Amino acid sequence: MAEAAPEPDVLSEAEVVADHFDGDADLYAASRPLILEQFVSDMAAGDLALRRGDMPALRRIAHDMKSALALIGHLAISRQAHDMEQLSSRGGAERLPALWDQFKSAVSLIR
Amino acid sequence: MGSESEISEAAAASHWSTREVADRLGMAVRSVQLMVDRGELQAWKTPGGHRRIDRLSVEHWLTTRQAGGRSGAVGAARINGAGNRRVLLIEDSKHYQQLVSLLVKQRFPALTLSIADNGIAGLAMAGQLQPDILLVDLLLPGIDGATLIMSLRSHPQFAYTRLIVVTSLEGDALAPYQHALDDVPVIHKSKLVTELPQSLAASLARPVPIAA
Question: How large is the ipTM?
Answer without folding.
Answer: 0.91
